[in-house]
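Data availability (excerpt). The following record was deposited with the supplementary files.
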Amino acid sequence: METVSLTLQLLFAVVLSDLLARALASALPFTIPKPLIQVAFGAVMCLFPSLVFRLEPEVFFLLLLAPLLFLDGWRMPAEELL
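Predicted structure:
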């Protein structure tokens, strides 16, 4: 149950950072890259001691690393693979 709660909290944080990035994109005359906004949002979240994210290595490998590796494999050109 703790893993599901952590997953939902992280998903909610990503959605909030995306909404913040879109709001900043429409309000500012210049663009800020979305990863930079997400890193700043994560740093601000760490300032609140009530928000504790204890990420186990197994959860990291299951939720974050596997989709990234799949996406890299999907986008790899077949000619370079052969």
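Summary of structural features: The mean pLDDT is 83.
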